[in-house]
DNA sequence: TTTATTCATTGCAATATTACGATTAAAGGG
DNA sequence: CCCTTTAATCGTAATATTGCAATGAATAAA
């Protein structure tokens, strides 16, 4: 069916999955890493930097923007992207509660 | 095309995406949380616990096993699952280097 | 005003994912 | 030896994702 049954899971579980899903493509990972590395707004070089066609990059940017992880401001003909620091922190909190579950457990299998 | 162009990304980027992808479905998040909560092996209640059909759960478990995040041991007619602690730690290291990128950056957009 | 630049959107083809019914395989209990 | 239990696998339908060519919209440059 290809249709995830979100109703049967908790909001938290769906939220974790939603964040993870957006990181689940190397192009989006690469875009975010580049935005961090530059430590500033990026106006346009993303298509050159990552080797995908412009519409494809645009699509990936849209997904990142939908989740609030990046912001885009129009500047003349070009658009300027950067990490949304506030929301990135929120995301980190959510993901950490999931990843840092521990592990008092000994190997039992 | 539906086919991710992994060639044009670094191994690290692909690895991050691969981990993230497996967390990108709430059923797999729920399975992992349940394994952590029990703090022990789980032999079979997963289908009752999560509201999906047995073949569906089996498929999700397979993906988690392929990435090494869980282990499964046969015990009689049933199979016993638990977190693979070593590999979970390795995964955490990889994901942390990605998520903890900071942020000297001021909001520029 | 025309032309160029930059990015978003649309439309579509190829492939992947999700879910489940039906079946199979393997082990135990009678 | 049958029958049950448990979980993997197969096959398939529905939907989602990825990628790009073509097009559109908006601004800047000439």
Automatic annotation (TrEMBL), chains A, B:
Keyword rRNA-binding: no
Domain of life: Bacteria
Pfam family, one: HTH_5
Gene3D superfamilies in the cross-refs: Winged helix-like DNA-binding domain superfamily/Winged helix DNA-binding domain
GO MF annotations, alphabetized: DNA binding; DNA-binding transcription factor activity
PROSITE patterns: HTH_ARSR_2
HTH arsR-type domain sequence ranges: 8-106
Keywords recorded for this protein, A-Z: DNA-binding, Transcription, Transcription regulation
Keyword match NADP: no
PANTHER family, per the entry: REGULATORY PROTEIN ARSR, TRANSCRIPTIONAL REGULATOR, ARSR FAMILY
UniProt protein name: ArsR family transcriptional regulator
């Amino acid at each position: 069916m290809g249709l995830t049954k979100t109703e049967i899971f908790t909001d938290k579980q769906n939220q974790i999955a939603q964040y993870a899903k957006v990181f689940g493509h190397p192009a989006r990972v690469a875009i975010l890493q580049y935005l961090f590395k530059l430590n500033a707004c990026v106006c346009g070089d993303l298509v050159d930097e990552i080797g995908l066609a412009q519409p494809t990059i645009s699509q990936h940017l849209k997904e990142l923007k939908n989740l609030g992880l990046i912001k885009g401001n129009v500047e003349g003909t070009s658009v300027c992207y950067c990490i949304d620091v506030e929301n990135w922190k929120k995301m980190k909190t959510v993901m950490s509660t999931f990843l840092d579950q521990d592990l008092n457990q000994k190997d039992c299998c």
